[in-house]
Amino acid sequence: MTVQYAEFAPRPDLASHVVCIWVFEGREADEDQRIAPDGCCELIIHRGEPYLERRSDGSLVRQPPALFAGQLTRPLHLRAEGDVSVIGVRFRTAGARAYVGRAMSEFTDRRVAWPLAEGVDLNNVQDHVAGEIARHAVTGDPVLDRCVASLEGGFGVEALCRHTGLTARTLQRRFADRVGVSPRMLAAVIRFRRVFEALREATTETWSDAAQAAGYFDHPQMARDFRRFVGCTPSRFVAGAPGLATSLVDLPLS
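Given the sequence above, the corresponding structure tokens read:
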């Protein structure tokens, strides 16, 4: 099986809202792709046959050709049938609010069919995103942006309250509107993603090393988050065949 994944930087006028544009193409193995939370929302365009999404009861339902994917707080398992071709727009943690024009909490753990004009593709998807942002004209929230940056820098929620002067309830409301998850949930996702960053470092030799580098107390604590966010053990995740899941976390597999 051959898979190809590539990321492209957004143009300058979208850089404050969008992390990257990505493309994935290939033939997936006949197994579920375990998509890990990353603290970002995404616009997904299936140029080929859309993925099948596994529901909590084990059944499979086909995704729409275009969808908006909200923040993840629990496992998302997808399965392909043959060749796939996907375009993704990965928004910054608080960047999608300007694109959708609605509270991000409406989309948490949901993939919503998204109306796109005929012919939106890799060549003009940024024009589409810029047009929607201009149409909604959502004002920025610098305090919220600083809070997100502080969480990424290792601040705790209590420190955010002290630093901003906002109550925990006010922070919850603003995060629900702009991000889609609570500050505490976002902090947990950020820590979880740091495991994959650690695995890409040459100095990381064991899972315990990765757990410590990511800020976990020990390996079992990290393993609990793997079950919480992807539904399996760390070793089972990395043992999976190369595909969309491993590409999205940039996990080096031999």
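Residues 66 and 113 are 6 Å apart (CA to CA). Try to locate this feature in the token string yourself.
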